[in-house]
Specification:
Blueprint lengths: L2 H8 L3 H13 L8 H12 L10 H10 L3 H50 L3 H22 L2
Length: 146
């Protein structure tokens, strides 16, 4: 690799210079580091992670520098997404409640049929009906508690 290209690679970018000057304000001892140490420090300091529905405030303000309406639009988009997600979750909860109610009605109806079979003297039929009903209820209970 030619020497000129090597020098260009080692030059800090404008953003790296900004990060380094910010760090030097708080930690004056950084000025004593050689260029390689400063480069490693800047690369370590620049790594940021942020998780959430809206960007980190500094990133959001950067969008504001591009267009003053961007931060408000981004926050509004996150609020609408959350509202949509809540609507979907509420629908799923209502559907699960209906399914549980249907399962209760069905199990009561089958138990009633088993009871009638027992009253009419069809013991084996009643045992099979009650056994299948209890088995299905236990299976559903254990499957949901995993």
């Amino acid at each position: 690799m030619p020497e000129k290209d090597k020098d260009k690679q080692n030059l800090p970018s404008c953003a790296e210079k900004e990060v380094l000057s910010e760090l030097e304000k708080d930690h004056p001892e950084i000025k004593t580091l050689d260029s390689k140490g400063k480069e490693i420090l800047v690369r370590m300091a620049r790594r940021q992670e942020f998780s959430g529905p809206i960007p980190h405030p500094t990133i959001l303000s950067g969008y504001g520098k591009i267009n003053s309406s961007f931060p408000e639009r981004i926050v509004k988009m996150a609020e609408e997404e959350q509202k949509h997600r809540h609507t979907i979750n509420n629908g799923v909860l209502k559907l699960e409640q209906r399914a549980q109610l249907c399962a209760l009605i069905l199990s009561l109806a089958v138990s009633f049929v088993g009871y009638k079979a027992l009253i009419l003297g069809h013991v084996y039929c009643a045992v099979i009906i009650f056994g299948a009903t209890i088995g299905a209820l236990l299976t559903a209970y254990l499957h949901n508690n995993k």
